[in-house]
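Field log, afternoon session.

UNIT: design team B
ACTIVITY: writing a sequence onto a fixed backbone
BACKBONE:
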C-alpha cells in the first residue's frame, strides 16, 4: 500500500464513513459502576477526591442503583465501610454487614442489575491490610479461609458475582471450592488477577477508609515493573477457577490488558481506578481538558487494548454521554 494509490484519509471523510470502519466501540453495556456503602440512613456523603462519587447508606444506595440501571449500565460493584473494625476484619462476613444488607436491598429493588461484590479485608481490618497479620506480616494461608467466608456471605445474600481483590496466593481456589461446597457453583468469580501496588489507588483509600496503618501493600500486590509475572498470576487464577480476569489499574497498564487478551480466552476486565478518575476530574475542573472527550477516549482506549469489561467511576457519565 503506497501513496498516492492508497490514501487512508479517504475513509475518514465523513462521520458515517468513519463509523463504518471503526474497530472498537464503547457501550454502557460494558461498564460496571463502583458503589461505596456505609452505615446509617439517608446518607449521601461526597468523596472529596472523587467528585460526583458518594458514600451511600443501604436505603440511598438502592435509589442510586436504580439510576445506574436506568442509564443502561448493567452492573455495580459494592465496597463496604463497616460499623467497626478489628484485627480479623470480622464485619466483612457478618450476615447483617453493610454490604450483605445492600446486596439484599438492591437485588430486591432492581433484580436485573448485576451485583458484584469486592471481596477483601482491608476496609474491615483495624490495621488496613488485605489479610490477617502474623507478627506484622500478612499471613497468606490464614487469610484464605476468611476470604472464602466473605465470598460465601455475599453469595448467600444474593450477590451475582464475587471479585477478590486481596492478592493472596490461592484465594480464587479457596473461594471457588467454598462456594461449590455450599451450593453456589453458579456464582462466577471475577478475579483481580493482575493487581499492581499502585499509587493510583490514593482517592479510593480515602473513600473506603482502607489505607494500611503501617507499611504498604508491596508484599502482596504486584510490582508495576512486571509484565511476564502478570501471565503467571493470570494462569494461576484461571487454573483455580476464575471466570473473568481483571487488570488494575487500567490506563497505565494497557500493555498488560493487551497481553492477557492475547494469551487467555477468558473475558478480561480492567479497573479504571480512583486516581485515574481524579486526574481527569481535576484537570477538567481547571478547564485544562474537555472532560467528556477525555473520559470517552480513555474508556475507548481501554476497550481497544482488549478489555471486555471496564469498572469505572465514569460509568454513569459515560452512559449519559453515549446516549
Ligand atoms: C481493596 C481495593 C482497593 C481498590 C479496589 N479494591 C484498594 C487497594 O488495594 O489499596 C482500589 C480501587 C480504586 O482505586 O479505584 N483491596
Amino acid at each position: 500500500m503506497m501513496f498516492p494509490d492508497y490514501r487512508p484519509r479517504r475513509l475518514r471523510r465523513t462521520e458515517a464513513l468513519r463509523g463504518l470502519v471503526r474497530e472498537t466501540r464503547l457501550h454502557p453495556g460494558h461498564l460496571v459502576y463502583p458503589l461505596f456503602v456505609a452505615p446509617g440512613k439517608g446518607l449521601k456523603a461526597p468523596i472529596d477526591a472523587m467528585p460526583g462519587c458518594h458514600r451511600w447508606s443501604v436505603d440511598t444506595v438502592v435509589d442510586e442503583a436504580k439510576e445506574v440501571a436506568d442509564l443502561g449500565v448493567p452492573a455495580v460493584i459494592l465496597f463496604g465501610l463497616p460499623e467497626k473494625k478489628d484485627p480479623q476484619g470480622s464485619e466483612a462476613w457478618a450476615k447483617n454487614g453493610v454490604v450483605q444488607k445492600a446486596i439484599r436491598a438492591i437485588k430486591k429493588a432492581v433484580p436485573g442489575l448485576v451485583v458484584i461484590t469486592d471481596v477483601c479485608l482491608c476496609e474491615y481490618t483495624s490495621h488496613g491490610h488485605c489479610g490477617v497479620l502474623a507478627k506484622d506480616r500478612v499471613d497468606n494461608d490464614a487469610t484464605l479461609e476468611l476470604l472464602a467466608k466473605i465470598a460465601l456471605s455475599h453469595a448467600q445474600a444474593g450477590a451475582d458475582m464475587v471479585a477478590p481483590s486481596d492478592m493472596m496466593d490461592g484465594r480464587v481456589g479457596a473461594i471457588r471450592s467454598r462456594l461449590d461446597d455450599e451450593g453456589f457453583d453458579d456464582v462466577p468469580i471475577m478475579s483481580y488477577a493482575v493487581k499492581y501496588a499502585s499509587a493510583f489507588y490514593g482517592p479510593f483509600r480515602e473513600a473506603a477508609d482502607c489505607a494500611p496503618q503501617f507499611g504498604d501493600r508491596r508484599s502482596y500486590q504486584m510490582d508495576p515493573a512486571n509484565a511476564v509475572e502478570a501471565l503467571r498470576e493470570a494462569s494461576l487464577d484461571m487454573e483455580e477457577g476464575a471466570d473473568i480476569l481483571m487488570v488494575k489499574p487500567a490506563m497505565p497498564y494497557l500493555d498488560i490488558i493487551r497481553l492477557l487478551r492475547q494469551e487467555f480466552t477468558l473475558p478480561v476486565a480492567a479497573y479504571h481506578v480512583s486516581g485515574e478518575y481524579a486526574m481527569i476530574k481535576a484537570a477538567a475542573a481547571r478547564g485544562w481538558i474537555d472532560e467528556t472527550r477525555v473520559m470517552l477516549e480513555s474508556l475507548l482506549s481501554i476497550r481497544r487494548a482488549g478489555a471486555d469489561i471496564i469498572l469505572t467511576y465514569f460509568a454513569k457519565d459515560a452512559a449519559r454521554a453515549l446516549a
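LOG NOTE: The chain has a mean pLDDT of 97.
NEXT ACTIVITY: expression trials, pending approval
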